[in-house]
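Materials and Methods. Structural model of ZIP family zinc transporter. The 265-residue sequence of ZIP family zinc transporter from Hymenobacter wooponensis was retrieved and submitted for structure prediction as follows.
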Amino acid sequence: MNFPTWAVAGFWGLVSGSALLIGAAIGYFLQVPQRLVAAIMAFGSGVLISTLSLELMEEAYEKGGFDATAIGFVGGAAAYTFANWLLARHGAKHRKRSGDQQKQERASVNSGQKEATDSGDDNGMALAIGALLDGIPESIVIGLSMLAGGAVSMVAVVAIFLSNLPEGLSSAAGMKKAGRTPQYVLLLWAGIMVISGLSSLLGYTIFSGFSDNVVAATMAVSAGAVLAMIADTMIPEAFDVAHNFTGLITVLGFLVSFVLSKMGE
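The predicted structure was written out as tokens:
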């Protein structure tokens, strides 16, 4: 049975996003050592960096040339950085941290709010928006990867799945220490998983009729946003615990993604 291409795009976006929910469940209900969380985070960072370099940016360059790719890449990074800066001011700076940073940040935000005793969850919305900010560009990548020949890039799916797992794991571990309920954590990441599937679907359907230059710029925007996310959130969490081993583990993740990309040729 042949399914519509847009449905396939949504399905693979959902699959890659499911790693967020799986990781969140593991991080919340199991006692995962912080060093292991940091190692997985570093590995996922290497996988994503390799995928951005060898798959996404290369495809964007072939479609739209240097100008569209460069403008989109820098624009995506700038947009993510600005949005991340705004979220940090509202209590979502440490959303991917697995230690006590989220707990301290939540207490700091609540202490500065007059209505804190009524709501008790002043940075909850910032956390949710931050999770969306991190997840949507990755999912759009999957939909865009299908525009060339109608087949999904399994390298991109595997890379995003491998990077999403430690993101959900680390963030949920930190949320638990900050006093978040399991219902809050699991519903948040389940929602992000669904939105990931929709983002992938929209990435394919919306841009299927656009010119190569527009598609190239959009791919580069996603790449720039994801790379900025890695540098701002994933690498700091990994280095904070793994320290001198972070670079080596990141390189191993890069190598795995490189091998997968060559196997898919």
